[in-house]
Specification:
The protein has 519 residues and is of the alpha/beta class. The protein is 25% helix and 18% strand.
C-alpha cells in the first residue's frame, strides 16, 4: 500500500491541504436544492436508444457493432423518451445529455447551430417531447454546453473560410492570416488542442459573448434544467462565466451549472460562477481504494492518468475528508460524483473486469454527499475501453444484461432515495484500518452506518468506542450490501462493540441504526 493518493504534482494537481487552503468565498454559495437529492444518468445520445418514429439517413452502423471514431448508430431523443420508464425504475431523477445540437460529429462537440437540435436526433421537436415526458416523471434534463469552440460548419467561421479577410466575422475567432487553412494539420487560427475542426471562439468580442449567453438563456426558456459546461477553464475569463450565471439564473434560479474541471475547481466555485463540477477527484479516490489492479493503460490520455496507486483505508479516509473540506458544504452537496464518463474507459474496464470494484464504488457513491451520476449502461455491465469504445450502443436485448448488477444498482438508488441521511446528513468517519473503512451519515431523523471492505479477507469489526451511532439501546440492521446477502441484525454491546459483526471480503454494506424501545 502507498500514501500517494493525496500527493500532488504540477501536471496532476490533487486535493492537498498544504496547497489547497480552506475555502474562502466572496459571496454566499447557493446551489439548486433538487440537485442535492438527485441521481443523474449520463447519456451519449447517439448510443442509447433509437426510435422508429425518427427518420434516419441510410448510412448508419449496425447498432450492436463496436463503435468507431466517425460512425453513427442513429440513437435519438425520442428513443430516450420512449424508455423513460426504464430510467425511472432505475431510480434516475436527472439526465445529463452529451451535446445534442446540429453537428457533423457523432459526439456533437463540433457545433454547427446552437439553436437547432441535430436532425438525426429528431430536431427541436424531439427535445420538446423528451422534456415533456421526463418532467412528467419528475426527471430533469441538463444539456452539454460547448462554448469554448465551434466547428468549421458554424456559420460565422464558415463565412470567414469562404470570404477570407473580407468576412465581417473575423473578430469571432483568432485568425493569424488568410486564406483560412481549415483542412490541414496546422490551422492558421486558434483551435482547441490545435484541432482544425474546433476553432476557438474569441470571447473578448462583445457579439460572441452576447451570442453564447443568449444560447444559455434560450434553452432554459425552452425548458431544460441546466448546463454541463465543456472545458470551461479554456475561457479564461471569470467575468464571462459570472455573467453566464447571472443570465441563466435570471431565467430559472434553480437551473444547475456544472463545469468540466478535472482538478481543484475552487476558482470557479466561489458562489459566483458554477454550482459544481464533474467530480473527477472523487473518481480518483474511488479507483485508488476500490480497484485492486488498476489498468493504467485504460487511463492514459485522460485527466485521471498519472500518480494514482492503490491505497489503504487510512489514506482513503484522509483523501475523502480533504475532498469534503475543499469546498463549502453547499457546493459539495451539488457536486456531480461520477465513476466514469464518455471521456474515460468504463470503470469495470479500468478494474480489469472486477465487478466487486464497481459494486463497492457504487455503494460508496450512493452514500456520499453530492449527486451520483451513472454512465449509461454501467448498471447492466456494459463495458468499454477508451474512446470510442467507452461509447458503445446500449444493448436492449435483456439476455445480454447483467441482471444481478442491475438489481444491485436499483437497491442502491432506492436506499439513497429512501434515506435522507444518505443524501444530506453529516459524514462521520468511524473506522479506518487495513482495507476496512466505515463511516456514518446522520440527520435529525436517522443514522446510517456504511462499511466497505476492499481486502481479500473477512474482517471482524472491533469495538469502536463511544459513538453516537453505537448506543446500547440500538441495533444495526443491514439495509443492503454489495453481495445480495441475507439481511442481518447486529446488537450493539457496551463500548461500541458490535456482536459478531463481520464484513466479508470485497463487500460493502449499508446498515440502519434502529433504537430498541424500552419497557
Amino acid at each position: 500500500m502507498t500514501d500517494r493518493l493525496d500527493k500532488t504534482s504540477q501536471s496532476n494537481p490533487a486535493v492537498n491541504p498544504a496547497v489547497d487552503p480552506a475555502f474562502a468565498s466572496p459571496v454566499e454559495a447557493r446551489t439548486p436544492e433538487w440537485v442535492k437529492d438527485a441521481v443523474f444518468y449520463q447519456i451519449f445520445p447517439d448510443r442509447f436508444a433509437r426510435s422508429e418514429t425518427v427518420a434516419k439517413p441510410s448510412n448508419l452502423e449496425p447498432w450492436d457493432t463496436p463503435p468507431t471514431t466517425y460512425g453513427y448508430k442513429g440513437g435519438d431523443l425520442v428513443g430516450i423518451a420512449e424508455n423513460i420508464d426504464y430510467l425511472a425504475d432505475l431510480g434516475i431523477t436527472a439526465i445529463y445529455l452529451n451535446p445534442i445540437f446540429a453537428s457533423a460529429a457523432n459526439h456533437r462537440y463540433h457545433t454547427h447551430d446552437y439553436f437547432q437540435v441535430d436532425p438525426i436526433l429528431g430536431g427541436n421537436a424531439a427535445l420538446r417531447k423528451l422534456l415533456d415526458v421526463a418532467h412528467t416523471r419528475g426527471i430533469r434534463v441538463i444539456l452539454d454546453g460547448v462554448f469554448n469552440h465551434a466547428s468549421r460548419g458554424f456559420y460565422q467561421f464558415n463565412h470567414a473560410l469562404e470570404n477570407g479577410h473580407a468576412s465581417p466575422y473575423l473578430d469571432w475567432f483568432y485568425f493569424s492570416d488568410f486564406p483560412v487553412r481549415a483542412y490541414t494539420d496546422y490551422p492558421n487560427y486558434a483551435a482547441w488542442w490545435n484541432l482544425p475542426a474546433l476553432p476557438k471562439f474569441n470571447t473578448s468580442t462583445k457579439a460572441v459573448r452576447e451570442f453564447l449567453w443568449s444560447v444559455g438563456r434560450y434553452w432554459l426558456e425552452f425548458g431544460i434544467d441546466g448546463w454541463r459546461l465543456d472545458v470551461p477553464e479554456e475561457i479564461n475569463d471569470d467575468e464571462f462565466w459570472r455573467e453566464f450565471r447571472r443570465q441563466v439564473k435570471s431565467v430559472n434560479p434553480e437551473a444547475y451549472i456544472c463545469g468540466e474541471i478535472w482538478t481543484n475547481a475552487s476558482r470557479w466555485l466561489q458562489g459566483d460562477q458554477f454550482d459544481s463540477v464533474m467530480n473527477y477527484l472523487f473518481t480518483r479516490c474511488c479507483l485508488a481504494f476500490f480497484v485492486q489492479d488498476i489498468d493504467f493503460g485504460a487511463l492514459d490520455g485522460t485527466g485521471i492518468s498519472g500518480w494514482l496507486e492503490r491505497v489503504d483505508a487510512k489514506t482513503f479516509q484522509r483523501a475523502i475528508l480533504d475532498l469534503l473540506s475543499l469546498y463549502p458544504k453547499e457546493i459539495t452537496g451539488a457536486q456531480l460524483n461520477l465513476l466514469n464518463s464518455h471521456d474515460t474507459a468504463r470503470y469495470i474496464n479500468i478494474a480489469r473486469g472486477d465487478e466487486s470494484a464497481l459494486r463497492l464504488a457504487t455503494l460508496f457513491q450512493m452514500s456520499y454527499p453530492g449527486a451520483p451520476c451513472i454512465y449509461y449502461g454501467d448498471e447492466i455491465g456494459l463495458g468499454g475501453g477508451k474512446d470510442p469504445d467507452s461509447r458503445r450502443a446500449f444493448p436492449w436485448d435483456k439476455a445480454r444484461w447483467n441482471t444481478s448488477l442491475q438489481s444491485f444498482f436499483k437497491k442502491a438508488t432506492d436506499a439513497r432515495h429512501d434515506h435522507p441521511a444518505l443524501r444530506r446528513g453529516s459524514f462521520d468517519p468511524l473506522y479506518a484500518e487495513g482495507q476496512l473503512f466505515m463511516f456514518g451519515r446522520q440527520d435529525n431523523e436517522e443514522k446510517m452506518v456504511i462499511a466497505l471492505n476492499t481486502g481479500n479477507e473477512t474482517v471482524t469489526v472491533p469495538a469502536l468506542g463511544d459513538s453516537p451511532y453505537l448506543k446500547e439501546d440500538s441495533i444495526l440492521l443491514t439495509l443492503m450490501d454489495t453481495g445480495n446477502q441475507d439481511r442481518h441484525i447486529y446488537r450493539i454491546l457496551p463500548g461500541g462493540q458490535l456482536e459478531n459483526f463481520k464484513v466479508p471480503p470485497r463487500t460493502g454494506m449499508i446498515l440502519e441504526v434502529v433504537r430498541i424501545a424500552k419497557d
